[in-house]
Amino acid sequence: MTRVLDAALRKAAAVWISSPGHEPRLVHAHWRDDALWVITGGSEQQVPGLTDQAQVTVTVRSPSTHSHLIDAQAVATLTEPDEETTQALKTARLNTEPEWEAVYRLEFSA
Predict the structure, then answer these.
(1) Host H or E run for residue 89
(2) What's the pLDDT score for residue 90?
(3) Which fold has domain 3-108?
């Protein structure tokens, strides 16, 4: 992963995710442990095409200017987050108590 991608994801509260056959979708995400975490289902966002082992494109835009910063390829892994990560995901959703059905860890190609 590049330093530009790492820096962009540390600042981003939301990214665009697209998978083959699906339009890009603006998604709330959380950068933690060198991966992008995305919660879906339940009262949370729906992300068409985000499935276990899906190859997706993540687009990060500048939080201040909304200009395009970087596109990166990632692989999504359906996971059960540990307690610390679960708390971090809940905290990141400031305005609500999230109720999700699935958690995906998106890991980027080197």
Answers:
(1) helix 83-92
(2) 84
(3) Pnp Oxidase; Chain A (2.30.110)
